């Protein structure tokens, strides 16, 4: 069976050859074929071959890889449907290759293949930012690619160290030592570990409307998948997940740019997945991977709805929105479903998977507290975005619903959020690990409902406090930039001057050696007799006479071009070295 990612990669080659409705049909046909293939695929290992003494596996299908591939293909189809209006082959090709390389990582059975597709993901996704074709997107894409080159370099270094230590490239838990640290940090860049996360809220708001939908899905989730393969049950990873959850939601609450708010919520929501993987129990792992599945659906839907607002109005800041519920009812409806889903409201898919992770986190109270607090912050964020962005009165806004295919994509994604929220058994049947969880226990549902009611009352009471406003929020990238400026100052000032001084010293040494080489004997005589003559001049008070004598001696150097007594020079030099060695041997040794 052909690796699903390869179908997308090969399918991208035909896109420039097609036009009009045929192209649109083809764009939907390829992900549909992959979806059908995945539903009929059973656990297997295939496409194995030897290359340069390495055992490579391009198709390692088990319950974990298949589960992640299902949602990658589903949302790939819906995101492509959402983007059918785009008349830019470069974006469609990049989207296909982005999806294909992400599936390549998911089905790879060795680290070499993972690294190959990992790097392809970075290259193809940056095109979706450049395609916006303005200065902000160009600069953001440059910073984005720098981060991913750094992360890819760490991952490659870790893979090399792992291979040196074990002699195997098989994908699995990483041995302790240098490989452990490098691979974890390399994955951590894509999985937005704090403080390696700043590329995401910097880049995603500057991608194209459709490009941001794709980017919200694949890069971070392939990182989560690879983390599950390599670092499950690591306590430090669980703690990092808790930190990510609360950190991301805190910064999200401060944002005015709607897509930047959603970007920070990716950091927060990925924190739940990372925490589940770090906790490592069957329930926690299932929860983390189920949250990956659910998050892809509601986060893609959120980017679709906010992208629809941007498409219709050109507005990205919450302060300029409002009144959209009346002008864009379908967009408002689907946004509301996505907001309730990400908040974890009962009856929506986020409630199920988030509850699984929080339930498993009782074994680590610190992580449990951070995740619970992040849940409250998430609901507050989307109360803010929903009220000020869609339901607040704004009679001056001009907006109409987006094209039909965009609305269909949003409605289908919203339907999946509700379906999996009401019938989570559909997802439980294909989860990779065996663990029991009952999401609709009365106590759990009632506690969550009461918590949401209290949070809603707090929001209404403090409406003015949560009102969005224009402000600059400094994240850790502000520190990076300050350090970068300091580094450049060091390069351009102390280091540059020190380098010039070093060069000058070596040039003087070179000139001195050339000068001595013209007449070694005469040079040694000059160097030895000059201080002696100056001392004599001072003692006798005849400085002017001796100065002229010394100047005459130095001007006459090196003397005749060819010495008449070369053997004599050699003898004198040998005698000097012999005497020096004799003095050292007798008196100084």
Automatic annotation (TrEMBL):
Domain of life: Archaea
Keyword Cell membrane carried by entry: yes
GO molecular function: oxidoreductase activity
Membrane topology, from the record: Multi-pass membrane protein
Keyword Membrane: yes
Compartment list: Cell membrane
Stretches that traverse the bilayer: 30-52, 64-84, 96-129, 141-165, 177-196, 208-228, 234-254, 261-284, 296-318, 330-348, 368-387, 408-428, 448-466, 521-539, 570-587
Main location: membrane
Matches recorded under PANTHER family: HYDROGENASE-4 COMPONENT F, NADH-UBIQUINONE_PLASTOQUINONE
Protein name per its UniProtKB record: Na(+)/H(+) antiporter subunit D
Organism: Methermicoccus shengliensis
